[in-house]
Design brief:
This protein is an all-alpha fold. It is built from ten helices and no strands. Helix 8 crosses helix 10. The radius of gyration is 18 Å and the shape is elongated.
Length: 211
């Protein structure tokens, strides 16, 4: 895919949604950290239902530590893998209190030192909470990048590095959100909705579903 086509793809995505953001509901970097940790193998809708109950009660590291691991589980038990997620969140809260004055760090090294925070989660927080031009490649972004040929790669890290290199700088901060939303609602895994796609003429997928 050439630069001109790639630029036009992101121009259309931007025109269609000028200020994209995560569908996770949060109001602080810490709330986002908790929500993203809970979102692994879970839907944003499911996470939002749980955090709508949790955050009014506890939305700081100190407050969640006061709940304790079992207390936290009561709020998140509707979410898959809630036992391990509760453990990681409690451990992360303790580290935030002990080492970071209860403030979520704004750099990858410190974020990835927190239990339950891998590269993708760190990228989401750096991008969404702190406005840094990172690329959190999930299944949607991986699929869209390969299917459209915007940034094909054999691994998640390959796709991340290619996107960071190939997406025009003016679109880089929001590209992660546009690609996720496009994959979630249009370029679906089993049956892409090519007849509703605003970049269908630019996409290089060979088996377009135009019915």
């Amino acid at each position: 895919m050439n630069k001109q086509k790639r630029t036009e793809i992101f121009r259309r995505l931007r025109d269609n949604n000028p200020e994209p953001t995560t569908e996770l509901e949060y109001s602080t970097p810490f709330e986002l950290l908790v929500a993203v940790t809970l979102s692994a193998q879970a839907t944003d809708v499911g996470v939002n239902k749980a955090t709508a109950r949790l955050f009014p009660k506890a939305n700081t590291p100190v407050a969640i530590l006061a709940l304790g691991e079992e207390g936290l589980k009561d709020y998140i038990k509707t979410i898959g893998l809630y036992n391990s997620k509760a453990k990681h969140i409690i451990q992360a809260c303790q580290i935030l209190v002990d080492q970071f004055d209860s403030v979520v760090p704004d750099n990858r090294k410190d974020l990835e030192s927190l239990p339950g925070v891998g590269r993708k989660t760190a990228n989401v927080i750096l991008n969404t909470a702190f406005g840094q031009p990172t690329m959190a490649v999930d299944t949607h972004i991986y699929r869209v990048s390969n299917r459209t040929k915007i940034a094909p790669g054999k691994t998640v890290l390959d796709v991340e590095k290619k996107l960071l290199r190939l997406v025009p700088k003016e679109f880089l901060k929001d590209a992660h959100h546009w690609l996720i939303l496009h994959g979630r609602y249009i370029c679906k895994a089993r049956k892409p909705l090519c007849n509703k796609c605003i970049i269908v003429d630019l996409c290089e997928y060979k088996d377009k579903n135009l019915d």
